[in-house]
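Note to self: the last two entries modelled the partners one at a time, which told us nothing about the interface. This time every component goes in together.
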Amino acid sequence: MNTSGLAAQPRPAAASGGFDVLVVGAGFAGSVLAERLASQLGLRVLVCDKRPHIGGNAHDRYDDAGLLVHPYGPHIFHTNSAEVFDYLSRFTEWRPYQHRVLASVDGQLLPMPINLDTVNRLYGMNLTAQQMEAFLASMAEKLESVKTSEDMVVSKVGRDLYNKFFRGYTRKQWGLDPSELDASVTARVPTRCNRDDRYFTDTFQAMPRAGYTRMFERMLAHPNIKVMLNTDYREIEHVFPWRHMVYTGPIDAYFDYRHGKLPYRSLRFEHQTLPQEHFQSVGTVNFPNDYAYTRVTEFKHLTGQAHAQTSVVYEFPCDEGDPYYPVPRPQNAELYRLYQAEAEQVPNVSFVGRLATYKYYNMDQVVAQALTTFRKLKAQLGGEAAE
Ligand code: FAD
Ligand code: UDP
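The predicted structure of the combined assembly is written out below.
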């Protein structure tokens, strides 16, 4: 028996039949945990995913024209966490990339998040940064408390900018009025009184140089990790013995929806490959007020790929389909808490990731959550590793 807790030598997964850990889902949450458990604790890990590929929603692939695209919508990596960035840097090199977004409003393409140029061009003014602060203060509605996504915006920039940039987009994206969503949703998009037109201001902003899928391949390449695709965990959970499960699918599905279905918003993606080198001047153009789609993204901006053609994706929000977005509003948080309380009673299953913890997390937040879960599991599983 190894009492050191850390079994340094890899033991090929199939060598002794069973697995130490069954990881359900090969997205960020599942792949980070599989990698840590295998490489740091020497555990034998089986990763299954019901989809035919690794990477979860961050999966990317080359389309028929040879352009690198994101089948599940544009994924731009950004984080303030050096720990997360350093960790992922073990598996990829990076291409520095700062995302820019324009919003189509009143016949103009204007910087989004709203900044000094947005306001000056929209209203035909020539404000300075200081004057913009005063202007927004005069437009802002004074509220006693900020609870909803509508409150969040009107209390900062007033109703006109809210109506032009947020109300229509949010109603399309979520099928709900901003007044029905937590403030945290629109709080993701700041307002700036300077001319910074980047979508994100995080310390680290970069794309995996060879793509996300290549990065996931490297994470999962450890000899202790076996990957089974096209496999729902329910098909195998009783076939292969395991001691611990890391579950990254929807939490309500795990419990057979016994408290009712948690709402997840979905998207239909329309991909187009176009016979031209460029399509739009920035990575993404948002359409808050027109069309059934919310935004159009041209991948070459994100990937930096040189190619005679270009590939774009239109996002059409819908209720039915793969669960992409947990819907942040009080009644859903309440329903989630019922599932969370059940999850806490299941000692040999860890619930991790955007779907299993019903959190509107970015990729870096999921990586951070998985690394935290690993530290907890290390104490629990490390000592048992070589029993
Ligand atoms: P997922 O990637 O969803 O992985 C879960 C996996 O579990 C899936 O592959 C699924 O097939 C599998 N699974 C589920 N149930 C089962 C089952 N029963 N059996 C087997 N397998 C199962 N984040 C950013 O940081 N930047 C962005 O620009 C960004 N853009 C986004 C754009 C869109 C359109 C969407 C939807 C998300 C975006 N995100 C972005 C968020 C990002 O996708 C997530 O934070 C991250 O991918 C979540 O990883 P995860 O492992 O928790 O979940
Ligand atoms: N949003 C908006 N108008 C925009 C961009 C965003 O109203 O032009 C709101 C909308 O509710 C959206 C939320 O802000 O769902 C968060 O935007 P983000 O770009 O972070 O969404 P994601 O990339 O996660 O889909």
